[in-house]
Amino acid sequence: MMFDHRDRRIRLEQQMAEGGVGLAFIPPSADLEYLTGLQRRVITFGEINYTHGWVGGAFLAPGQDPVFVLPRMTAEFDLPEGVPGEVVIVNETDDGRAVFERVARRYSSPGRVAIGSRTWGETVIHLLDALAGPELVDGGAMVNRLRRVKSPAELEAMRKVCAIADTAMAGVSDRVRQGVTEMDLVEEVNHRMGEEGSRTVSFDTGVWSMGPETDRDATVRVSRQPVVPGTGVSFDFGAVVDGYCSDFGRTVHVGEPDEEYQRVYDLVIAAQAAGIAAVRPGATAAEVHRATRQVIVDGGYGDWFRHRTGHCIGLDVHEKPFISEEDETPLEPGMTFTIEPSVFWPGRVGVRIEDIVVCTESGGRKLNAHPEALVANE
Predict the structure, then answer these.
(1) Residue 167 phi/psi, 5° resolution?
(2) What residue ranges in 45-203 does DSSP mark as E strands?
(3) Is the Cβ–Cβ distance between 119 and 137 less than 8 Å?
(4) Burial (CB count within 10 angstroms: exposed 0-12, middle 13-18, buried 19+), residue 366
(5) Cα 204 from Cα 20, distance rounded (Å)
(6) What is the DSSP pairing of strand 248-254 with strand 57-60?
(7) Could you give the 3-state DSSP secondary structure of residue 38?
(8) d(Cα 99, Cα 255) in Å, to the nearest integer?
């Protein structure tokens, strides 16, 4: 899918002008992909780095094309689509500091300099040296103000990536039975998402069982233990399409659900519905959180709704603003975020649901289509 990266940079320049910012440096990240199309590497548990890796990023100045400074290995293997602007390559035997500072000094007297949130500390040190100690501001916050409202093209990517999660859940639900292991279910979910076109998982897939017959806590995302009757098996996973992420959740019960499980399941579904009903332009993220949480509090399980209601989502799985008690950001049409209430009471009951919701002029609308009805397998 094609996105208008130049228009995004023009809108960033407008913000820079309003804030008196003459230069931005953005390292490889969702922000840089948003602004230039430079595709990120697939996430890994450990760090991937190269000689002079700290130089990696792009200088963005008003009215000019980006200038990328990249270690040779990044330039060699991570630019399949090319990039809009000049590329300065730092070879392994080069003086990385000298090359980086030579590029930085092209921008004389930039005043304030915005740096991306994930800029290396080493990069900041050399940037300050090269530009004689400019005032630094948070470039991540500036780009977030652009990223939080999705364009029609972005919403189409989000719809596609949500459909992949829906399809994976539909395919795996019947497999949730006595004796299957949580790890088996993780592997099947991941495989199904890949078959449907996901570039990778958007975060580590979680599958965990909880109920009177287990002593598991939701802090353990997956184990090799087999599922036993009388437990709710919760799923938390996401796919990636065109760089955009999904984040999805359901719970499937194994065996005949008891009265408490049914009561808690109904509460969690009602809590999500209340949160979606609270979504409208101008409502705050905190108001949506309170509407969602209050249903579970009134039902007597407030102590076991142990996390925030949700978070914005797009090129990153967790984006600001957060759908949480402390976040008073007003919602705008085009914002996409999760509403994911749950009740996790170790040794007793576990239920969750999670869908991505878009704020529209007329209220909240789910992008996921997987049914929310209770599923109980023998």
Answers:
(1) -65, -40
(2) 57-60, 67-71, 86-90, 112-115, 136-138
(3) no
(4) middle
(5) 40
(6) unpaired
(7) coil
(8) 64
Amino acid at 56: G
d(CA 227, CA 249): 18
Phi, psi of 71 (to 5 degrees): -65, 150
Check: CB of residue 255 under 8 Å from CB of residue 176. no
Whether residue 235 is predicted with pLDDT greater than 80 in this model: the reply is yes
Does residue 127 contact residue 115 with C-beta atoms inside 8 Å? Answer: yes
Instruction: For 7-20, give one letter per residue: b (16+ CB within 10 A) or e.
Output: ebbebbbebbeeee
pLDDT in tens, 14-54: 999 999 999 999 999 999 999 999 999 897 888 889 999 99
- Give the 3-state secondary structure of residue 104: helix
Q: Which residues pair with 311 in a beta bridge?
A: 322
Q: What CA–CA distance (Å, rounded) separates 172 from 207?
A: 12
Which tokens belong to 130? 């090269």
Cα angle for residues 51, 55, 58 (degrees, 5° grid): 140
- The whole-angstrom separation of Cα 154 and Cα 244 is 8
pTM of the model: 0.95
Length of the chain: 378
15 neighbors 113 (Cβ within 8 angstroms)? no
Domains of the chain in start order, with CATH, are 5-147 (3.40.350.10), 152-377 (3.90.230.10)
Question: At 359, which helix (H) or strand (E)?
Answer: strand 355-360
